Amino acid sequence: MEFFDKLGKKASEAYKVTADKTGKIAKEAKLKLKMNDLKSQINDIYKDIGKKVYEKHVREENIDIKSELEEECTQIDVLSGEIENILEECRELNDKKQCQNCHAEIEKNSNFCPECGEKQEVVEEPQIEEAKTEEVVEEVAEEQPEVEENKEEE
Q1: How many domains does the chain have?
Q2: 116 Cβ contact partners less than 8 Å away, ≥ 6 residues apart
Q3: C-alpha 63: how far from its chain's center?
Q4: Which of 25, 48, 125, 154 is the most exposed place for a label (fewest CB within 10 A)?
């Protein structure tokens, strides 16, 4: 029975790893779709700005950028901020971070940037999740013998 217990445990671990990776891939795909939508919205705003500027040019009028294009520029700033947040989420999903100097995407635990050589701040993650995972595995292991005992009694 020990062989089957070990086999079941290994299969459960493999399933969990696969499910986690699949979940990460699906979440990243959704984030990238949203990011592309936001980029499309920014491009539409750029077109509106260009159209306004050209219309002023045709009428030989001066354009007051501050007052006439402030709303569009603010919209672009907001959308760009959302895109940056999505990029940060994608980096987190892939255990990456951004270099503080050159902004290259690097491994989360890197001490130095492979692109520019800048020393990186090492951020230590809390060990809470690992402890919870170990507790769950122990609980499941404790429950399994009870199930086997019930089968033997029947």
Answers
A1: 1
A2: 99, 101, 102, 104
A3: 40
A4: 154
Residue 78 included in any domain: yes
Please indicate, yes or no, if residue 75 is contained in any of the structural domains.
Answer: yes
pLDDT digits (tens, 9 = 90+) for 35-86: 999 999 999 999 999 999 999 899 988 888 778 899 999 999 999 999 999 9
CA dist., res. 99 & res. 110, Å (int): 9
Q: What tokens were used for 135?
A: 């507790």
- Distance of alpha carbon 97 from alpha carbon 58, whole angstroms: 47
Asked if the structure places residue 101 within a domain, the reply is: yes
Q: How far apart are CA 68 and CA 110, in angstroms?
A: 46
CA-based nearest residue to 122, from 132, 131, 112, 137: 112
Residue with tokens 């009428």: 59
Length of the chain equals 154
Domain that holds residue 109: 20-125
SS3 for 1?
Answer: coil
| Cα atoms in the Cβ-side hemisphere of radius 13 Å centred on 146 | 5
Is 71 a domain residue? yes
**Model pTM greater than 0.85?**
no
CB atoms within 10 A of CB 97: 20
